[in-house]
Target: HD/PDEase domain-containing protein
Amino acid sequence: MQYRRSDFDVTNTVQVSSAEAVRRAVSDLYRQQWPHYPFDRIETAFRDFERLFNGQFPGYYGCDTVYHDLQHSLDGTLAVARLVVGYDRSHIAEERLGPERAILAVVIALFHDAGYIRQTDDQTHRNGAEFTLSHVSRSAQFIGRYLPTIGMAQWVPVATKVVHFTGYEVQFDQIRLDDNRDRIVGHIVGTGDLIAQMSDRCYLEKCRDRLYPEFVLGGIAMPSDQAGNTSVKYRSGLDVLRQTPEFVEDVRRTRLDGEFASLYQHLEVLFNGRNPYMEAIQANLDYLSEVLRTGSWPMLRRDPPCFTWEKNPVQNIRSLVLGHIKQMWKG
Model:
């Protein structure tokens, strides 16, 4: 049994740090499902995604968020494509999403975190994590501008709402969509985003070492109220891990099994009755439970690569976090 590599998907067969590898996997899967449908827009979207995250897209810096990096979005996109195909194979013709919505789901998944990426005319923000509380709305704006460039302008009103199923800025009951299939696309994109990151081989280390710094810069770890009073929600990366079991339980109850109606079950069609994503999530939780029970933090020793456009992204964000905390204490 080969050990799962840190930048490969749950099946250990697709390198999710490579836009080309994920594009090939998604295209192959879609062509199996819809053999006579053209998927050139998917190829274009993957190329543009890679340019955006690597700092080659006009008007934008590259990705500099260490948790929400290139691998995070590619891993989620692969999960979304699998969910779309699993869903359509499980439903009668009139209920299926079809190839157009399949393309839409992949494009939204690719760019669902585009809102973290700073624009070149922005001189006030030092790292994309500072957009944490507004990044989904910013992603919706990017997607709204992007879709017409690949001949999908008619999907803008749908896509700019659907992307909010990946965040917390808009309550789900406020997301109005005329066609239930569009809402299913949103549920699939939201599901794929969650199960991909929580099943990541290095999910626990990434929460400790990379999500916490983003929480600090994004105003989540130490939020301030309207009167300027600051409270502490997460004291450290270890504190994030201590609260992770409760977070996962809440996500499963309110999102995966709640609003998203257990859509992850449709993956079983593709994996002979198994669900490698949910199995990997449970394995992560079991391992974390043992770490928390014993207090053996050195059990979390993985240091996976980080895929941003910067040379030393983790060191850079740590420096920003230290400066941010010092400034808060000074204030």
